[in-house]
């Protein structure tokens, strides 16, 4: 492939000069272009420069500092969990006080880590915190993660090098203070556990994350204003150094009474909407709910309840399409035909 025309190089230089990059990084990128390489090498350098330019240096989302609004969002999205909600509201109160005192950049919020069994609301409550603050949120799943480079990025020496998931998350949210959800940090691949935990220590330590170096970028990026939230099923597989940097909050199991309220007032309405079924097309008798809640015995979370209601609503959707009938009533006599 022939060398790119000078106008192409000049256009890239202009992009660099018009960007809001720190001066030292701007000079670094301009130096890369000074050699005016050709072909594939140029394409790789241009891709790297485009990525660097797109990073939101000194761009921040404006936090919504309204505790009453936060409480309303938590109550709207989650039933019960009084102790957990109180802890979150305390956490937001401290954040609000520091923000209103104009100490932006000096306060490092503690890293909340929600610990609990599957279906107890760990992930969804992180989304509620982000909604309360008005910050964008990105979820990074750690289940089965087997390569620390997936987080930290790959050196550009490799032809197929990519940035890590952390820097990609910052780029995609377009602000330097998003909420980044580190989901299921206890479920990383065993063979890579030590290395991944090492990256986590750097991410979650305020003394280190203000100059986090992604191997693809090869220059430090300040992550100190990112709000990291972690989740885990248990703490047994989390390194002690990581535990020292997080504040674990235990998610309680739901009682049958709580599940009934959640199922009736939250999950059923969502399942009906997902199935395209109008609310008035389905009635579930009160004495049927125990069978829906415990089709296979006790479950600490609401995941199986959610699946049961989704299955039930899909069956109703099929009956509506095939028979054009309705509304449908679920009773103790026919519930077996709707819930396995």
TrEMBL record:
<dbReference type="GO" id="GO:0004176">
    <property type="term" value="F:ATP-dependent peptidase activity"/>
</dbReference>
<dbReference type="InterPro" id="IPR054594">
    <property type="entry name" value="Lon_lid"/>
</dbReference>
<dbReference type="Pfam" id="PF00004">
    <property type="entry name" value="AAA"/>
</dbReference>
<protein>
    <recommendedName>
        <fullName>AAA+ ATPase domain-containing protein</fullName>
    </recommendedName>
</protein>
<dbReference type="GO" id="GO:0006515">
    <property type="term" value="P:protein quality control for misfolded or incompletely synthesized proteins"/>
</dbReference>
<dbReference type="GO" id="GO:0016887">
    <property type="term" value="F:ATP hydrolysis activity"/>
</dbReference>
<feature type="domain" description="AAA+ ATPase">
    <location>
        <begin position="108"/>
        <end position="252"/>
    </location>
</feature>
<dbReference type="GO" id="GO:0005524">
    <property type="term" value="F:ATP binding"/>
</dbReference>
<dbReference type="GO" id="GO:0004252">
    <property type="term" value="F:serine-type endopeptidase activity"/>
</dbReference>
<dbReference type="InterPro" id="IPR027065">
    <property type="entry name" value="Lon_Prtase"/>
</dbReference>
<dbReference type="InterPro" id="IPR003593">
    <property type="entry name" value="AAA+_ATPase"/>
</dbReference>
<dbReference type="InterPro" id="IPR027417">
    <property type="entry name" value="P-loop_NTPase"/>
</dbReference>
<dbReference type="InterPro" id="IPR003959">
    <property type="entry name" value="ATPase_AAA_core"/>
</dbReference>
<dbReference type="Pfam" id="PF22667">
    <property type="entry name" value="Lon_lid"/>
</dbReference>
């Amino acid at each position: 492939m022939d060398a790119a025309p000078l106008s192409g190089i000049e256009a890239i230089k202009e992009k660099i000069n018009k960007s809001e990059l720190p001066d030292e990084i701007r000079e670094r990128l301009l130096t890369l272009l000074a050699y005016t390489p050709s072909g594939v090498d140029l394409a790789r350098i241009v891709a790297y420069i485009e990525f660097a330019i797109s990073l939101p240096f000194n761009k921040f989302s404006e936090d919504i500092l309204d505790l009453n609004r936060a409480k309303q969002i938590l109550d709207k999205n989650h039933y019960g969990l009084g102790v957990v909600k109180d802890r979150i509201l305390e956490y937001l109160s401290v954040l609000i006080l520091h923000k209103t005192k104009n100490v932006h950049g000096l306060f490092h919020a503690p890293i909340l880590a929600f610990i609990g069994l599957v279906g107890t609301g760990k992930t969804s409550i992180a989304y509620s915190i982000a909604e309360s603050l008005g910050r964008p949120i990105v979820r990074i799943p750690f289940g089965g993660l087997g390569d620390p480079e997936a987080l930290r990025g790959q050196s550009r020496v490799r032809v197929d090098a990519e940035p890590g998931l952390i820097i990609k998350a910052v780029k995609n949210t377009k602000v330097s203070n998003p909420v980044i959800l580190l989901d299921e940090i206890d479920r990383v691949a065993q063979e890579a556990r030590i290395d991944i935990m090492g990256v986590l220590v750097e991410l979650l330590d305020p003394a280190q994350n203000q100059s986090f170096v992604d191997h693809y970028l090869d220059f430090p990026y300040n992550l100190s204003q990112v709000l990291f939230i972690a989740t885990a099923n248990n703490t047994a597989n989390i390194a002690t150094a990581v535990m020292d940097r997080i504040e674990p909050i235990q998610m309680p199991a739901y009682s049958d009474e709580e599940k009934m309220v959640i199922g009736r007032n939250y999950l059923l309405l969502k399942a009906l909407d997902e199935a395209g079924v109008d609310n008035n097309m389905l009635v579930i008798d009160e004495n049927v709910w125990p069978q829906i809640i415990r089709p296979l015995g006790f479950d600490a979370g609401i995941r199986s309840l959610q699946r049961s209601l989704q299955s039930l609503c899909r069956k109703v959707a099929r009956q509506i399409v095939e028979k054009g009938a309705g509304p449908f009533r679920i009773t103790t006599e026919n519930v077996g035909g709707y819930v396995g």
